[in-house]
């Protein structure tokens, strides 16, 4: 029987499955953050919509990795998906803590991308290395920078409501326009 598996190690396959799991967990976490921002207690529609977009992005990245895994001849195995962060007491958190939690999610994903890249380099897997370098690393760094800017913006503004209305709602509209192109 023929296989598409060429220079694709078990370690690479396992790490890709971990990446799929990580992105699905991140999407789950972002769904909880969005729901929290939609509650009466917090009521931040800009952040709610922003976290929903982040969740969609994570789902899309998980789908990309699933397609990559099957293209390389690997098998997709993802255990039960749980949120990346501890979400107990989420509704009692302040907005800057929620945005910090989102930053932590993105940093975990970036860390795993670096691990994947190291595995690709050590296995001399040019295809995986280039895929990570050209398609994933730079956008991930941009997302981390955006999250850092929002953590700092919420803290410096001193007014969560104003920051949500003047920064997040216009940003979400802009991002949606970009995504529909």
UniProtKB/TrEMBL annotation:
<feature type="binding site">
    <location>
        <position position="106"/>
    </location>
    <ligand>
        <name>Fe cation</name>
    </ligand>
</feature>
<dbReference type="GO" id="GO:0006826">
    <property type="term" value="P:iron ion transport"/>
</dbReference>
<dbReference type="GO" id="GO:0004322">
    <property type="term" value="F:ferroxidase activity"/>
</dbReference>
<protein>
    <recommendedName>
        <fullName>Ferritin</fullName>
        <ecNumber>1.16.3.1</ecNumber>
    </recommendedName>
</protein>
<dbReference type="InterPro" id="IPR008331">
    <property type="entry name" value="Ferritin_DPS_dom"/>
</dbReference>
<dbReference type="InterPro" id="IPR012347">
    <property type="entry name" value="Ferritin-like"/>
</dbReference>
<dbReference type="InterPro" id="IPR009040">
    <property type="entry name" value="Ferritin-like_diiron"/>
</dbReference>
<dbReference type="GO" id="GO:0008198">
    <property type="term" value="F:ferrous iron binding"/>
</dbReference>
<dbReference type="InterPro" id="IPR009078">
    <property type="entry name" value="Ferritin-like_SF"/>
</dbReference>
<comment type="similarity">
    <text>Belongs to the ferritin family.</text>
</comment>
<dbReference type="InterPro" id="IPR001519">
    <property type="entry name" value="Ferritin"/>
</dbReference>
<dbReference type="Pfam" id="PF00210">
    <property type="entry name" value="Ferritin"/>
</dbReference>
<keyword id="KW-0409">Iron storage</keyword>
<comment type="function">
    <text>Stores iron in a soluble, non-toxic, readily available form. Important for iron homeostasis. Has ferroxidase activity. Iron is taken up in the ferrous form and deposited as ferric hydroxides after oxidation.</text>
</comment>
<keyword id="KW-0408">Iron</keyword>
<keyword id="KW-0479">Metal-binding</keyword>
<dbReference type="GO" id="GO:0005737">
    <property type="term" value="C:cytoplasm"/>
</dbReference>
<dbReference type="GO" id="GO:0008199">
    <property type="term" value="F:ferric iron binding"/>
</dbReference>
<keyword id="KW-0560">Oxidoreductase</keyword>
<feature type="binding site">
    <location>
        <position position="140"/>
    </location>
    <ligand>
        <name>Fe cation</name>
    </ligand>
</feature>
<feature type="domain" description="Ferritin-like diiron">
    <location>
        <begin position="6"/>
        <end position="158"/>
    </location>
</feature>
<dbReference type="GO" id="GO:0006879">
    <property type="term" value="P:intracellular iron ion homeostasis"/>
</dbReference>
<comment type="function">
    <text>Stores iron in a soluble, non-toxic, readily available form. Important for iron homeostasis. Iron is taken up in the ferrous form and deposited as ferric hydroxides after oxidation.</text>
</comment>
